[in-house]
């Protein structure tokens, strides 16, 4: 069987986890959602919810050895048919990919921009980015096509020669870039301002929206609740310590988000005291900051966007793999065909996502106060915790107790095991259900 090696698995799973969520989304969400208070809830969720669900999701794949639907079906002792429906999670990934690939396209545009003259002043930069989004659909579609081709190419090659190999290259380079930029940012006077912006919580800013964003983001950033981790874990070598593997993934993912966040705000505050610029943060503000560094700035901009591109690709690959695994089985088709079918879906909806920001077409793709892009982003943050609830309940109540104990007994002591199960059975589902209902009905 085409299994990962242990290191290959860690690389690929860290690759799945560390993505646009860490470097593009996390920094602007911090500013939008109340700074340090958001960061605190996010960290709290990673430690007390994320790691427990991560272990549960890995365990389902590791024991089930199949795609999302199959693993649930094989392991369920009753209601197999119903549990098999959990396969909807794999489609959440396809759904995320529709906008993810578009954003990777924007990154490609900024890689090219780094070779020429960077925008001078925030106003110019904003204008550049906004006109790109609202009128330049041909370049956007071209870059989205490029992202689609790269992702499809890697996934077609399969787990071992595609995903594992790509991540052996992408992850170390990405880590070096982020860490290098972080070390450079320490030399800026604004470094300490950035630290206190990210780590000083202002609790008056906490409300249910901030909570859901932080929890939803914690799921998004470690790739939980949509079967990526499960699907990768189905190719884990036997006798892997999944508790350790989960800690590594959560650790690297959180470290990259925090390093990237502090680094980005240190650069930003060296130029302006204004933090809040939404999804445009790395596209509008950073190029202007880099511009003020002269030629060195072009270089910094280039490596930053290349790093972001690598982060995006390794996650995009992991968003596609669950559906591909599923389609190979149910359609009894080849990997290449499964990639083309699912790829075409996200490619075409991705084009609609692009048109949902284009001035002349956006009114047809906007409902209420959100366009298609925002709706997909918004719904994702509900679907992932929902996936998390299902996985928690499944491991907590449905997995045969003996199998569970036999698998985990060398990886956790008894007390930790009991706390983990209690957490999966009660605390996590109740907290997440309460949060989702609160959001839906508020
Ligand atoms: N974790 C990725 C990121 O932070 C996104 C992702 C979500 C990838 C779910 C796979 C599954 O960008």
From TrEMBL:
It is a multi-pass membrane protein. Keywords: Membrane, Transmembrane, Transmembrane helix, Transport. Pfam families: SNF. PROSITE patterns: NA_NEUROTRAN_SYMP_3. The chain crosses the membrane at residues 7-24, 36-56, 87-112, 137-156, 168-187, 210-233, 245-268, 299-327, 339-358, 378-399, 419-437. InterPro entries: Na/ntran_symport, SNS_sf, YocR/YhdH-like. It is found in: Membrane. One of its GO terms (cellular component) is membrane. Its main location: membrane. NCBIfam families: Na_transp. This is TRANSMEMBRANE TRANSPORT PROTEIN. It comes from uncultured Campylobacterales bacterium.
């Amino acid at each position: 069987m085409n299994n990962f090696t242990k290191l290959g698995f860690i690389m690929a799973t860290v690759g799945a986890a560390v993505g646009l969520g860490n470097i593009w989304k996390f920094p602007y969400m911090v500013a939008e959602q109340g700074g340090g208070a958001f960061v605190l809830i996010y960290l709290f969720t990673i430690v007390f919810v994320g790691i427990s669900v991560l272990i549960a999701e890995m365990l389902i794949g590791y024991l089930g050895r199949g795609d999302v639907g199959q693993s649930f079906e094989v392991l369920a002792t009753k209601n197999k048919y119903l549990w098999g429906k959990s396969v909807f999670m794999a489609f959440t990934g396809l759904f995320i990919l529709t906008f993810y690939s578009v954003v990777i396209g924007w990154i490609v545009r900024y890689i090219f921009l780094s070779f020429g003259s960077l925008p001078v002043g925030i106003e110019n930069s904003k204008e550049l980015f906004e006109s790109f989004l609202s009128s330049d659909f041909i370049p956007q579609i071209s870059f989205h096509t490029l992202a689609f081709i790269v992702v499809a190419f890697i996934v077609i090659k399969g787990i071992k020669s595609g995903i594992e190999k790509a991540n052996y290259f992408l992850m170390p380079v990405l880590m070096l870039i982020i860490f290098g930029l972080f070390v450079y940012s320490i030399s800026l006077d604004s470094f300490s301002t950035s630290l206190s912006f990210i780590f000083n919580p202002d609790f008056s800013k906490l409300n249910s929206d901030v909570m859901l964003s932080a929890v939803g983001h914690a799921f998004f950033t470690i790739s939980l609740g949509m079967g990526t981790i499960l699907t990768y874990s189905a190719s884990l070598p036997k006798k892997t310590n999944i508790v350790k593997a989960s800690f590594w993934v959560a650790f690297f993912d959180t470290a990259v988000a925090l390093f990237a966040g502090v680094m980005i705000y240190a650069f930003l505050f060296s130029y302006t005291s204004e933090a809040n610029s939404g999804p445009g943060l790395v596209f509008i503000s950073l190029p202007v900051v880099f511009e003020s560094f002269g030629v060195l700035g072009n270089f910094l901009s280039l490596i930053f966007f290349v790093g972001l591109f690598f982060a995006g690709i390794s996650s995009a690959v992991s968003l596609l793999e669950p559906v591909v695994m599923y389609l190979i089985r149910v359609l009894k088709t080849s990997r290449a065909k499964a990639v083309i079918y699912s790829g075409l879906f996200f490619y075409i909806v991705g084009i609609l996502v692009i048109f949902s920001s284009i001035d002349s077409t956006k009114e047809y793709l906007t409902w209420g106060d959100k366009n298609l892009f925002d709706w997909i982003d918004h719904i994702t943050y509900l679907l992932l915790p929902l996936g998390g609830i299902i996985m928690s309940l499944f491991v907590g109540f449905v997995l045969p107790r003996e199998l569970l104990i036999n698998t985990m007994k060398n990886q956790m002591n008894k007390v930790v095991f009991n706390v983990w199960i209690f957490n999966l059975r009660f605390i996590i589902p109740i907290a997440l259900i309460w949060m989702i209902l609160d959001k839906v009905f508020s």
